[in-house]
Amino acid sequence: MNLILFLIFCVIEVGTIGYVFLKMQEYPMELKLGIIVAVSIVVAIALRKIGKKSKGFIKKAVIEAIEWTDTLVWSGVFAFLIMYFFLQAFKIPSGSMRNTLLEGDHLFVNKFIYGTRIFYPTISDSNLKIKMKRTLVFKKPKRGDIVVFAAPPQALEPMEREAGIKKDFVKRCIGISGDTIEIKKKKLYLNGVLQKEPYVIISDIYYDNIMTRDKFGPFTVPEGSYFMLGDNRDNSKDSRYWGSLDEKYIKGKPLLIYWPPKRVRLIK
Fold it and tell me: Which listed site, 95, 108, 240, 241, has its alpha carbon 20 to 30 Å from 217?
């Protein structure tokens, strides 16, 4: 019986790891690590109970499995803390940042540079709410920075909002608080000055009737907000469509591309 239980929990452990990395590829790494750590803790507790009632080679096998499981738990906890406070793995979902970032690029995002986001519960009018506070802020996004952020509600499709879907976007910060943004015939003007944007791709001709895409503003960025645009300017749903980005949604700055191998490089 102990042998059967031992095998069952080993299969649960290995199966969880396989499922998380093969079937949950689009989910945040923090969530995947959290699932693995939680299951590993349960398995470690169960194996200890099995080990107390086992003898001979089964007991040796259980002890060996416990050591591996304990290592997995602590490694997972350490990795989770690193991913939550310092780094985030991110996959480019669309071509809105071509050719700076391509679809399928896997990035590490520096979450520490713009400050660590701490979430904490509060009670207001007998309702529990989760608030966010940004601490240890080393710098704020500046014009030209590529930024990863949680998509604000207005940037999601109605069905996505209703389903409670969360997404992360990556765009370039074009304007900060107080800046006036205007687009005339696809050309960007910042505070009345025409901007040179060597990274921008224009894939379509100018249409006078496409107001938001080719002709926008003037728009003044509110306090505590940023104006975000994609480098693939004609194929990006960005601040032209859903407004300025509140600072609370910012997650971090892309650090490097780590996959695919031919694309490995630091992001500037």
Answer: 95
Q: CA-to-CA distance for 114 and 95, rounded, in angstroms?
A: 25
> What are the tens digits of pLDDT across the range 74-130?
888 887 777 777 788 888 989 999 999 999 899 989 888 887 766 656 766 667 666
Q: What are the E-state strand segments in 146-249?
A: 146-150, 168-175, 180-184, 187-190, 193-194, 216-220, 225-229, 245-246
Answer whether 219's CB lies under 8 Å from 67's CB: no
CA–CA separation, 115 and 251 (whole Å): 9
Backbone φ and ψ of 183, nearest 5°: -120, 120
- pTM for this entry: 0.70
HSE-up of residue 265 (Cα within 13 Å, Cβ side): 8
Residue type at position 170: V
Window from 41-55, 116-130, 202-216 with minimum mean pLDDT: 116-130
Q: Does residue 243 contact residue 216 with C-beta atoms inside 8 Å?
A: no
